[in-house]
Structure formats: C-alpha cells, structure tokens
Amino acid sequence: MNKQRDNGQFEQYKRVVKFFGSAAAVALELAIFYYVWINYYNVNQSIFWRRGNWLTAGEYLVLLLFFHQMYGGLKVGIYRYWTLVYSHMISLVLVNAFFYVQVVLFDKRIHNPAALVVMTAAEFFLVMVWAFAFKKVYRFLFPRKRLLLVYGDRPMSNLMNRIGTREDKYEITEMISVEKGVPQIIERAALYDGIIIGDIPSHFRNRLEKLCFAENIRSYTVPKISDILLRSSTELDIFDSPLYLSRNNDGLAWDQLFFKRLEDIVITALLLVITSPLFLLIGLAVKCTDGGPVFYTQSRLTRGGKVFHIYKFRTMVVDAEKLTGPVKAGERDPRILSVGRLLRATRLDELPQLLNILKGDMSLVGPRPERPELARIITKNIPEFEYRLKVKAGLTGYAQVHGRYCTTSYDKLKLDLIYIRNYSFFLDLKLIFMTPKILFMKESTDGFEEGAWEDPALKE
User: Fold this and answer.
1) Is 371 contained in some domain?
2) What residues make up the domain containing 93?
3) In a domain? residue 263
C-alpha cells in the first residue's frame, strides 16, 4: 500500500469532522445567546413565551449561519487558527449588534448594552478555545499532506512561498520537472499524498490530470487563463456531444450596466453620509502631520483604457516619487507618514474614491485601477492583462477580497477574470459585504520587503 493511502485512513471522514466541528461552534454561540436572552432580556421584557423564545433563537441561528457563510466562519480545516477566530468574531459582532437594535425596538427602556458586551466577550472566549481544540484534533486526524510539485519553464517560487505559509496543511516534499516524462511523474506521485501540477504545457497537463484521475491520485492544478474562461462558459446540451458557449462580450450587458450604476450611486451616497465624520478626522490628521495637502491624486486606468485621476488621502511625504519614479511602497518605506501607516493598514486612505464612484470614473466593485506606467510594463509581459479593462475599475473587488498585497499581477489577473466572467448583482453584494473583513486584517506581506514576493510582470 503506497504512502498516499496510508496517510488517508481518516480522509473519508473529513467532511463529517468538519461538519460537527462547525456545528459545535455554532451550538456554543447559540447556547450563550439563549442563556442571556432568557435570563436577562426576556426577563425584563416578559413579552415572549416558549414559542417566541424559540423563534428568537431561530432568528439568531439563521443570522449566525448567514454571516459565518459570508465571512468564512464555517471553513474549519481550511483557515488558519486566527483567521478562523477572526471570521467568527466579525460575524458575532454584526449579529449581536443587529440583535441589540432589535431588543431596543421591542422595549426602549432596555438600552443597557452591558449584558450584550459580556455575551459577546464570552462568545469570543469560547470560539478561541473551540478553534484551538479543533485545530489539535484536526491535525491529529489529518496530518499535513506530502506533495510532489511538477514544474515547467515558468518560475514556481511564488507558488512555493505561498504553499510554505501553510505548513500546517501542505509540505512540498519533492520537485520534478515535466521533462522527466508523465510515466515517471505518476510513478513518483504514487509515493505521496498528492501532486501539484504547476504552469506546464497543456498537453502534458491534460495527460497528467487524466492519469491522476485513473490512479486515484489527489491533484492540485494551477489554472491557466484559458481555464478560467472555459470554466465560466455555458454548457449547451442541444447536440449529442458536449459544447461550451463563451459569448465573450465587450464587458457587461446594458441591463447589467444600468443596475450596477444604480447600485454604485445608492450605496456610495449612503457610505459618504456615514463616513463624513471620518473624512473630517482623517483630513485634520494628515494636515497636522506635515502641513501638506490632505488629498493625493494619481493617474489610473479604467474601462476601455480610459485614464482618470483617482483620489486618496495622502499617506506619503509630498513629492514622494519625484526622484524614484513609480515604485511599490513596502511596509517599512521611509516615505510613508506616521498617520499614513494607519490609513494604509486599515485601507482608509481609499475612502475619497467614493467621489470617483459618484463621478462615474469607478465602480464599487471591479478590478483595482492600475497606473498607466506600470500597466504598460505588465502588459508587455502579460498581454492578457488588458482583459481587466472590459469593466470599470473598482474600489473593492474579487482580487482584493481573495488576494493579497503581494499577489502577483498574473494571479490578480486570474482573480479579476473570475469576477468579470461570473459577474452578477449578488456577487457584487457578496464582495461588498466581505470587504469589511479584510479592512481590519493585516495584509500578508511576509517576504515582500526582502523581495521573496517579487512580481515577474514588473520586470522591464
């Protein structure tokens, strides 16, 4: 029996373990809420009896499941410990805030949030204990997978660095060149728990994937741009042979553009009203730092390659690129102002772009607008980079939610194409709801300062 099958003795029970692990966390959170509701809020109101209490608990459960699904609180065994805990925390804050508003509406006399604060703290503590215990059990049952990496001509350093950050789940034990031949690769792959098929020529990849399926070998495949385009095509069943339709329109249809613009205007106007105090406070903080201008404008690209001036709160010294030209700012860049570090860490420097959205330069959701100078270099190395310009640039987007600051231009392009090809009004709403989660998460820039995350597309 090969090594792959030895390590997978509990593999068939993984979904069951994940389900009951998630169910335990939700049950603990619900139990704490129900105890507080019965022994504090409903005692004071005395308006609900048994079925009313059950209905209230059911409402809390539905909201919990909704936000856990939105922010990844149910992705046990996938997220790291603190990422999983943070996902639960942000969901609990939103659900408990909604619950508190509802309680106040029931009875205006009950406005003391002390019980709610204690309840939230207790839920946080139990989530941390649960996540720690589940991590230990999960690692015991499902040890990290030993993988064989198949590489071709493209550099694999970025992929290896990313996999290296999840040493709790994966370990690249051996690397093998595609030039060794498919039979030898399959023979080596049988000794491991799986195989990573890198960016290799399509004919080799197709043979490998078929043989992995035939031999029951787990495979992880790095997608090509053509894979993303094909995956988002429509399957036609009008013939006796499968056929995939890819309409390849120039951006969005007229009705999609209409509702997307309506979405931009309504939500942006609301956000401007809510964040107006932040505009004032941040403006004063920037002005008091060095006396320079509060806002900073920069040329960016949007739909169809149109150039516009993006607005930001200034986070760097005046004329920061006068001598260096356009370069990416690292975490310890001396040009960044003290208040600028906080603004960058929380993405609050992007707030003025709400004005760009109202003007019609940008959309709430879309690919991040790139600078023309950098776009020329990237397009020279990745001609498909221009595909991003089929839609308006966005304040947030698929690549911002699912990527990182150090994600390469090639990988950002893939993420942006997933959004463009799968666009829907509900996908926009989902990405908007998911954005607050990444606002307060420290960007993963490990290795960025030392050049470990160098972007090959930025090399002239």
Assistant:
1) yes
2) 3-141
3) yes
Looking at the predicted structure, is the pLDDT value of residue 185 above 70?
yes
- My answer on whether 129 and 173 are in the same domain is no
Query: Rounded to 5 degrees, what angle do the CA atoms 305, 306, 309 make?
Result: 125
pLDDT above 50: residue 5: no
Whole-model pTM: value is 0.83
Do both 216 and 264 map to the same domain? no
Is 241 a member of any domain?
Answer: no
Highest mean pLDDT (candidates 225-234, 351-360, 450-459): 351-360
